[in-house]
Structure formats: structure tokens, C-alpha cells
């Protein structure tokens, strides 16, 4: 009896969705009763509104396009505009072409001995272009670039037709007893040695062949500015070459300072106006322009 009471209470709290369990008037048709029960148990589907197919596809394309653009805006932002400093940058000047221009200007001048006023101007202009591109030289950080043996290919001072350049020196020329050969500078940044090495050919009476010698003018150098160098003369050593190369070198006696002209003390100053690993331009204390290449 208690069980029946409990079952009656359970039925009284059953949701209305289960009312299909109650007998339904189906005119006594068992099959209709079964279908009615299944229909009542089947959940109702929600009918969504329909849109024309073409309109739905267009909306879908717009949605995809908008999504793609939004994603690209996050992943690939537009590049920022260059700053004023970046926009002012120009392509680097072809230093090699400026070097070639300078070498072309001084070629055929016999290191400056055959230069006229027009040749001097062209060489000076070409040197200034290379100096402007290279910028200021700071030997306090670039001193190691001076190290080595440098070959002189041009000196505006030689246009004076003397080996002393702007200073007094022995004359040179085809009919004179001294012919200038190659000129080098040997620089040692550790020992501070600065040697000017000059190859000379000394004329002799016929039939004696000319005497070939190499004169080494030894100096010490010091920096007196960011790009300025001072050299102090020490001695001159001469060594015969060619057929007389077996002779020992000898030191040329130095003229006493009291007898030496004030303009030819052997000391000098110059400024390095361009310097890289293979080319060097200097301007002397008397305005001489010299061009060297590493040897």
C-alpha cells in the first residue's frame, strides 16, 4: 500500500511532456496509438530563417575577406616611414673610382717631375675629392694603417725639379748627373722609425757605367695632432746596388747645424689627409701634396 502511494505521488509531479503515457482517444486503432506516442516523444526542431543562396554566399565571402584583412593587419603591419636621418642617407661613393681618378691624374708625371701647372691642379682636385669622401683621419685609432712600406707615386714638390721639393736640394734632369728612381717610406709604428728611401742613379764619365745607389734618410716620428706627424732627422745611409752591390753601406756625414740652412734642417711636419689599407695622401708643411700606395 505504501508503494502505491509513493507511485501516485510520483505521477502527480511528472512533467506535462510525459502526458503521452495517458490513454489517447485513437478510435481503438493500436497502430495510431503507437505513432501518436512516438510523435509526442520526438523533440521539436527549431526552424531557422532561410536566406537566398546568392545573398548568403556573398555574406560569407565578405566575412572571409574581412577576417583575412583583419588578420593581415595584425600579423603584417604596414612598414613605418623612414626617419629624416635615414631619408637623408645617400648611396656610398665609389671610393675605388675616385682612387682610379687620382691615379690617372698623376700617371705619366714621373712622380711629379714632369708636372706643369695644369697637371698640378688636376692632381690636387682629384686628391681633394678622395679626401672629402674619406673624412678626417684620426691616427690615434688608425695608427696601425701607417705600418709598412709605402711607394711614392706623386709629389707636387717635385715639379720644382729638385730632389728637395719645396726645400733646397740637388737638381735632377736628363742632362744632370743625378736621376731619381723609386721613392719609398718605411714606417714602423712600434720603434717610431720613419725612413725615406730614395733610389738614385749617379752619372759617371764615359765609358764608366752609372752608379746606382739607395739612400736611406732615417727619421723618428711622433704624433703632434689627430692627423699630424712630425719627423726628426737622424742620419743618411747610402748603399750601392747593381754591379757595386758588394760594397758595404756607408753613412754620409751630417752637416753641422751651424752650417745648415734654416730651411733644410732635415726635420719636417705633414698631415695625413687620407688613409686606408693601400692608399695614403699627405700634405706637407709647405703645401706639398704626396700620394703613396702600399708596396
TrEMBL record:
Record key words, sorted: Plastid, Transit peptide
InterPro entries: PAP, PAP/fibrillin_dom
Cellular component, GO annotation: plastid
Region (Disordered): 69-91
Domain Plastid lipid-associated protein/fibrillin conserved: from-to ranges: 97-292
Record's subcellular location: Plastid
Protein name per Swiss-Prot or TrEMBL: Plastid lipid-associated protein/fibrillin conserved domain-containing protein
Amino acid at each position: 500500500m505504501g508503494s502505491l502511494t509513493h507511485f501516485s505521488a510520483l505521477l502527480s509531479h511528472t512533467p506535462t511532456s510525459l502526458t503521452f503515457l495517458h490513454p489517447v482517444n485513437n478510435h481503438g486503432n493500436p497502430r495510431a496509438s503507437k505513432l501518436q506516442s512516438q510523435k509526442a516523444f520526438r523533440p521539436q526542431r527549431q526552424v531557422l530563417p532561410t536566406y537566398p543562396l546568392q545573398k548568403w554566399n556573398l555574406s560569407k565571402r565578405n566575412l572571409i575577406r574581412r577576417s583575412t584583412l583583419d588578420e593581415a593587419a595584425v600579423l603584417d603591419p604596414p612598414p613605418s616611414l623612414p626617419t629624416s636621418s635615414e631619408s637623408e642617407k645617400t648611396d656610398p661613393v665609389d671610393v675605388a673610382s675616385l682612387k682610379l681618378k687620382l691615379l690617372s691624374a698623376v700617371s705619366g708625371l714621373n712622380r711629379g717631375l714632369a708636372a706643369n701647372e695644369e697637371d698640378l691642379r688636376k692632381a690636387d682636385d682629384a686628391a681633394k675629392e678622395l679626401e672629402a669622401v674619406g673624412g678626417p683621419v684620426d691616427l690615434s685609432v688608425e695608427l696601425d694603417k701607417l705600418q709598412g712600406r709605402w711607394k711614392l707615386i706623386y709629389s707636387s714638390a717635385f715639379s720644382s725639379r729638385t730632389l728637395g721639393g719645396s726645400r733646397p736640394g740637388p737638381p735632377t734632369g736628363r742632362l744632370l748627373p743625378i736621376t731619381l728612381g723609386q721613392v719609398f717610406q718605411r714606417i714602423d709604428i712600434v720603434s717610431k722609425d720613419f725612413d725615406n728611401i730614395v733610389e738614385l742613379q749617379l752619372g759617371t764619365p764615359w765609358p764608366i757605367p752609372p752608379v746606382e745607389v739607395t739612400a736611406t734618410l732615417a727619421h723618428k716620428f711622433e704624433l703632434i695632432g689627430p692627423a699630424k706627424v712630425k719627423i726628426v732627422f737622424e742620419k743618411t745611409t747610402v748603399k750601392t746596388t747593381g754591379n757595386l752591390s758588394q760594397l758595404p753601406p756607408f753613412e754620409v756625414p751630417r752637416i753641422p747645424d751651424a752650417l745648415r740652412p734654416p730651411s733644410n734642417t732635415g726635420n719636417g711636419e705633414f698631415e695625413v689627409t687620407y688613409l686606408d689599407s693601400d692608399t695614403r695622401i699627405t700634405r706637407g708643411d709647405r703645401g706639398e701634396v704626396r700620394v703613396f700606395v702600399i708596396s
